[in-house]
Amino acid sequence: MNAPTSHTALHNDIRRLRSLLDGTLIRQEGADLLELVDKVRELTREDGAAAAELLGGTDLETAAKLVRAFSTYFHLANVAEQVHRGRELRSERERSGAALARVVRQAAQEVPESLASAVKNLHVRPVFTAHPTEAARRSVLNKLRRIAELLETPVSGSDRPRHDLRVAENIDLIWQTDELRVVRPEPADEARNAIYYLDELHAGAVGDVLEDLAAELQRVGVEIPAGTRPLTFGTWIGGDRDGNPNVTPTVTWDVLILQHEHGINDAIELIDELRGLLSHSIRCTGASDALLTSLAHDLELLPEISPRYKRLNAEEPYRLKATCIRQKLENTKRRLADGVPHEEGRDYLGTGELLADLALIQASLREHRGALFADGRMDRTIRTLAAFGLQLATMDVREHADAHHHALGQLFDRLGEESWRYADMPRDYRQRLLAKELTSRRLLGPAELDAWGERTLGVFHTVDRALDVFGPEVIESYIISMCQGADDVFAAAVLAREAGLIDLHTGWAKIGIVPLLETTDELRAADVILDEMLADPSYRRLVSLRGDVQEVMLGYSDSSKFGGITTSQWEIHRAQRRLRDVAHRYGVRLRLFHGRGGTVGRGGGPSHDAILAQPWGTLEGEIKVTEQGEVISDKYLVPSLARENLELTVAATLQASALHTAPRQSDEALNR
User: Fold this and answer.
1) How far apart are CA 656 and CA 305, in angstroms?
2) Which residues contact 627 (CB under 8 A, 6 or more apart)?
3) Counting beta carbons within 10 angstroms of the beta carbon of residue 215, is it exposed (0 to 12), middle (13 to 18) or buried (19 or more)?
4) Are 589 and 121 spatial neighbours (Cβ–Cβ below 8 Å)?
5) Phi then psi for 37, rounded to 5 degrees?
6) What DSSP assignment string belongs to 324-342?
7) 75, 144 Cβ separation under 8 angstroms
8) Range 315-322 average pLDDT
9) CA pair distance 653, 647, nearest whole angstrom
């Protein structure tokens, strides 16, 4: 018998799920509801007026059940479609090879030098954002994910009844679970939803993609440089203040604590797996002096390590070192919960110290005939932890440009040094004033600010505190929405200086300042804005302290609202080309952050195709892309599909960075 086509297989899965849902409706609500559902299905296909009449005469309680029945059906159909897409992508992989393998081979043959450069700077960051279109609770998501796993599992005839029972149980549980909360979700609730996906990605898909990337590059003689993080994750949840008064400095802090609780627990799971595998005896292999010295230092500082471990693992230094790493992670979790200071050697301040400990184990294994494990499972663990850090996702903070000027207006007006009020200053005058202030050693405060001003400045102080408590990876970018000129960027930089985040004289810039260009007018002025920023010596110094990288965010949703979809896409394309040219003129690497939504009107569409469509030279290994609302569950709910989506995104970024370094068309053709 011929195997069913993929299209047939999808319809078979949907019919199977519908049949099992029908059983749930009968068990939970009775045959009358199923009869009504079938009637509505029939009439909506054949007679819309009759369907409307039937629904108009339905009482409220029955109508609510009817809505739930169709909502549950669509949830199940979506899961079946996601599983089906995963199957199709795996089939494509078997036919044509993995996307990463194809890109690496092509680049190695055609542009080997460009490939090495692109790999050095490779950094893909999906950024999760909260959105009202995604309202599914984790309780429902867990059950849908379980159904997806069951659909992916091959089933023989004799196992089918038991398999169907497991699916039916989960459908019953979904029916008995309130899909929507009875209260409005708070930022912490939205963060938990994002963390659900991040935890799952931490457990499998990300490790698979990074391991495959390293293996494919190794085949062509290219190594991923130490410290390079090809894939990380970001979040706006808890940091996006623009238009959301609920996101206070306290909320930002609470979300960061929540992320770290999960991130550290996920790290502990990986370390526990390593502890089980690192049974190497010093009598059978050996260990480096660096590892043994580090272990002795750890044992001295960590009295919590049980004497039992010291006795049983006395000749297993790798396992004992992993036990010390685990204890430091536990101490870090306790430190953050109790709000006590970091103790060097007893807990971790950021991910760098954790990775350094693991690198000691890896290096010693390589020196003592353990290279296969060191470059295999050990390397996968290190790359996964580098991708997520202890924070799971790096938080971006976003605020409206007006908020910064509002706070600065009160600070400057209090000094009385200018002949006019700050709010009355023309934009060019304000730009010169702020640029001069950025070079100054003085502080504008302390001063009494109104509630709005206090909250705005308070966020910068929260960011500074977070970097001191959690480490440098926790927050990297401060985004200015509705940015219309360089003065908007300088305003945020001056407030960051007030909070101790930037000191151009001492030589540090703990965060980068990111203009968000949202409307068609701002996109058309993109090159002018960036040129004014980088032409100022003080701001150029700030960018230098950030590794000569300037991030610019492009807004798809608002530009579509102002100019329409086609105009938006064209203006974003042109803006990228002009931004690229300005950045290159100043010797700055451009990192573009694409604020794409889920729908086409918000810039949505396949990420792989969108990345490959970017103008030449605008991707230099780095890209950030928002993942919004229902797009997150669509891409990442099913583990196999999550893995394929991540691989396609990384492969497209590598391809665009290494292979698309010259124009495909002439300037004349593009500007017609």
Assistant:
1) 49
2) 126, 127, 128, 129, 635, 636
3) middle
4) yes
5) -60, -45
6) HHHHHHHHHHHHHHHTPPP
7) yes
8) 95
9) 10
Alpha-carbon Rg for the chain, nearest whole angstrom, is 27
Measured between alpha carbons, how far is 471 from 123 in angstroms, rounded to an integer? 19
The topology under which CATH files domain 250-388 is de novo design (two linked rop proteins) (1.20.1440)
pLDDT at 76: 94
pLDDT for the residue 600:
40
Quote the distance between the C-alpha of residue 54 and its chain's center: 45
Range of weakest confidence among 125-134, 138-147, 527-536, 589-598: 125-134
Distance of alpha carbon 181 from alpha carbon 257, whole angstroms: 23
> Does the annotation count 561 as an active-site position?
yes
Residue entry with tokens 């055609």: 110
At 538, which helix (H) or strand (E)? helix 537-545
- 131 in active site: yes
pLDDT digits (tens, 9 = 90+) for 340-386: 999 999 999 999 999 999 999 999 999 999 999 999 999 999 999 99
* Backbone φ, ψ for residue 590 (5° rounding): -95, 130
Span 400-435, pLDDT tens digits: 999 999 999 999 999 989 888 999 999 999 999 999
Token reading at 585: 């003129």
Q: What phi and psi, each to the nearest 5 degrees, are found at residue 446?
A: -75, 150
Residues 6+ apart with CB under 8 A from 276: none
The pair of structure tokens assigned to 410 is 């009160």
The predicted structure's pLDDT at residue 601: 43
CA 22, CA 18: separation in Å to the nearest integer? 6
d(Cα 549, Cα 537) in Å, to the nearest integer? 15
**Number of C-beta neighbours around residue 49 at 10 A:** 8
Exposure string of 490-526, with b = 16+ CB inside 10 Å and e = fewer, is bbbbbbbbbbbbbebeeeebbbbbbbbbbbbebbebb
pLDDT tens-digit series, residues 121-175: 999 999 999 765 455 677 888 899 899 999 988 888 788 899 999 999 999 999 9
Percent of the chain at pLDDT > 90 equals 69
Q: In this model, does residue 520 exceed pLDDT 80? A: yes
Q: What is the pLDDT of residue 453?
A: 93
**What are the start-end ranges of the H helices in 30-159?**
31-46, 48-56, 60-96, 99-110, 112-121, 138-152
Active-site residue among 123, 131, 202, 262? 131
What token pair was written down for 594? 């694409």
pLDDT given for residue 647 in this prediction: 94
Return the domain boundaries, the chain: 250-388
SS3 491: helix
Q: For residue 151, which amino acid is it?
A: L
Partners of 355 in the β-ladder? none
